[in-house]
Every structure is written in structure tokens, then in C-alpha cells.
Amino acid sequence: MGREEEIIKERERKLKEMLAEGINPYPASFDKKNTCKEAIESKIGAKVVTAGRLMNKRDLGKIIFSVVRDGTGDIQIVFQEGQTPDKTTKFFQKYFDAGDIVGIEGKLFKTKTGQTSILVEKVDMLSKSLLPLPEKWHGIQDDDERLRKRYLDILMNPETREIFVKKGIFWKSFREFLTRHGFLEVETPVLENSAGGASATPFKTHHNALNLDVFLRISMGELWQKKLMVAGYEKTFEIGRQFRNEGMDAEHLQDYTQMEFYWAYADYNMGMKLVEEMYKEVAKKTFGTLKFKSRGYDLDLGKKWVVYDYESVIKKNTGIDIYKASEKEIKLKLKELGVEHDPKMSKWRLVDSLWKYCRKKLAGPGFLTGQPVEVSPLAKRNPKDTKKVEQFQVIIAGTEIGNGYSELNDPLDQESRFKEQSKMKEAGDSDAQEHDYAFVEALKHGMPPTCGFGVSERLFAYLVDKPIRETVIFPLMKPEK
Q1: How many Cβ atoms from other residues are within 10 Å of residue 427's Cβ?
Q2: Are 299 and 164 in the same domain?
Q3: Rg of the chain, C-alpha, whole Å
Q4: Does residue 194 sit in the same domain as residue 248?
Q5: What CATH number is given to the structural domain containing 384?
Q6: d(CA 87, CA 100)
Q7: pLDDT digits over 36-92, tens only?
Q8: Which of 69, 140, 414, 457 has its CA 20 to 30 A from that of 469?
């Protein structure tokens, strides 16, 4: 029998013995009056009642030291001969192990080493743990195992715990910023008849009650929120989960949180101004700074944001004139640069692959503008250069982290672009968009000039300089065999 099996067997024995003695090892509640943080900040001599997980147990005979941890921090507890009731000490010695959830009553004091601790007067078993905690200093070494058992990763690693505290502040800050600026939070459908609002491969499922195939949304209600602009709302936003059945890497997951806003009577220039202000406020509230190190770049969101031109950046870094070069020339350049690409891609998808190669050279912060109509079928054409659209993408540390544009509200132009997207899909481009007839119909009723913008949790991952999977509290994992 291995060491872990022995530990489990011993804990199971303690559980049976407690039950036999009429002790409930899993009571329904506990009157917790103080968090660990509140307890440790109380006056010496104050009586405190707290609860949390027992992280260790050091029995030195006449004195026992342990640490209790809750969501606010750690506090040391002490069982002292002559001061802690013998009955309480013996109960603790007999049944309690590291990992148990415990309730503690006692008085605050300082040990000889000056550590603020609780001198225990009473201890309650609130949940008997049957499996041991990971070894303190080494924890879970296998990354997949650590992510699969994220609850242990959070419990044992303060850094992991802090990531998700900050992530909560991150999304709360977006919500507060937009609400303060007069935006209404809305909820739009997750299941759709056609996956619209972005160029991505959707997840497909079947709706039994209606007997039809539906798709999980690939955008945060883009077409729905635009219909709300038609309906007369002037500022809306949504924060929620969206799903793309595509590749998985340090920057991409199949399901993730996204925020999108839509602002009537605004264009992309007004959008850029608002987004820059919003990013700075969210970063400052979440991290207390505007300076970050991410993916090898030194970032300062507080400095002047650069405006990059799509066509110029590609020409400068590859020599390719995207409007004059043939599809063959672009493919040869991609091959020369070692950029992987699908040979079935249309010319403009190939051009976008060139851009993605070039963007790695841009540190930001800044905005990419001047995108071709063909790579952005939902954006309004730039009246000064109708080959391009009024789009802006946030550039930070060599990648796009946020995308917005002056929304296309010309129903005939929109219908024409949907038809072109349909041809691209028929030719094998799986990322091309569906023709959404209902959306075109809504546009024909009239949608005001509108700026739309979306950003995903990739921004958070970049600001904490972690792969995105590390910043998702429970990432999707293959099941254990």
C-alpha cells in the first residue's frame, strides 16, 4: 500500500469513528463572524470566530500550531496546554488533518515570535477531507492535472487565486465604465439560426423542441445589438461567453468571455477615443498601474497611442502592395516568410495572413486602421477611400486586442457583402460569414450611424502576461482516461 493510500484509509477510519460517536463531520452551517483577514486585524485579546481550510498541523506535544486559510488570507491557530481546554485539544489531535474545513473560536494573541494568532478555545469539524492536499512546496507539477483540478491550484497558489480576484475587478471595471457613460447592459441569444457577426467556425447543435439545427454564437450579439439600434436604443453593451470551434493556443480558446458595445450616432474616431479612455481606466482599476511587461514587450498604456495603417504596415514589412499584388504573389511571399496558410483561402484571407505576420513587429499601444472592405464585411466604407473601411483594432504587444468600426448601416451594401461572403464560403472558406436575411431586413427599416466595439478576455491574459488558458478559471480539458 502506497503512502497516499495509507493516508486516505486513515482519514476514512476517522470519519467512521466520528459518525459512530454521533459527531456530524458535515454540518449544514457555521456562524462565521470574522474572515481570516478581519480576525488578524482585530485587537489583541479580542474574541474571534472564523472558519476555513486547515492547511497544516504541527503537533509539538504541549503546543500545536496550524494555519487556517479562507478567501481573504491565512491566520495561525494555536492549541496551548493549560490555556486551551483539554477536551478541545484532544478532539483536534484525534480527528483533524490538513485539508479539513474547520470552525475556530478563540482570542487573538501574539506568539513569542510576534506572530498574530488565535489561541483556540473551541474547534468544530465543518467538512472532513478524505483526500490529502498536494505537497506544500511542489504542488501539482503536471500542467494538465493542475488545470483539471483548478480548485487545488487556487487553494495552494496565492498567485493563481489573485489572478481571478483581479479578473473579477477587470470585468466589473468595464461594466462600471460603460454604465457611467450611459450604456444599457443587455442579454442577447446564445443559440442562433445562423452564426453571424464575425468570421469564425461555429459550434453546431440540434434544438429538439423546434427540430432545427442551431449554432452557438461567435460574437457577443453583434447583429442582435445592431437590431437594438434599429429599435431605438442608442447605447448598449453585453458581457458574456461566446464560442468558436477553432484552434487552441496561448491566445485562443473555444469558449471565452467577450464584451461588445454599440453606440448610435458615433463613428470609429469617436470609438477610438472612448476605447482608449476605457482601457486605461480598466487597467488602472484592476492592476493599479498603466505599465506592464507582456510577451517580451514593455507596455505603457499611458503614453500616446499610435495609429497604424493596414496597407502601409504590410508594404513596409513585406514589400507587398495588397491592392496590386496577385494571389500567387501573396502565396509566394507567405511561403518565403514561413507563414502557414490554407491554399484554399481567398486573396483577402491571404492578405490578412500577411498582416498577422506584420503585427508581431508592433508594440503598441495603438490602433490599426485602413482595413480592406473584403476582410471586414460589417464595417462602413471610408468615404475618402472606398476600398477601405472605417475600422479600428487595438494593438498591444504584437497582437490585436479589441476590434471596432463604424457599423455598416446601408442595407444594400450589406446585402451585397453577404452575397460575396457566401461565394467565399462555397469556395471553401469556412470562416466566411453566412447571409443573414433577417439582419438585412432590420437594416432596411433604418439603423442610425453606429460605432461598435468588442474585446475579449485576451486583454486580461496579456496584461497579466499569461497564456489565456491560465486566466480561465476552469478551462475545458480532455477527461482523464
Answers
A1: 11
A2: yes
A3: 29
A4: yes
A5: 3.30.930.10
A6: 19
A7: 999 999 999 999 999 999 999 999 989 999 999 999 999 999 999 999 999 999 999
A8: 69
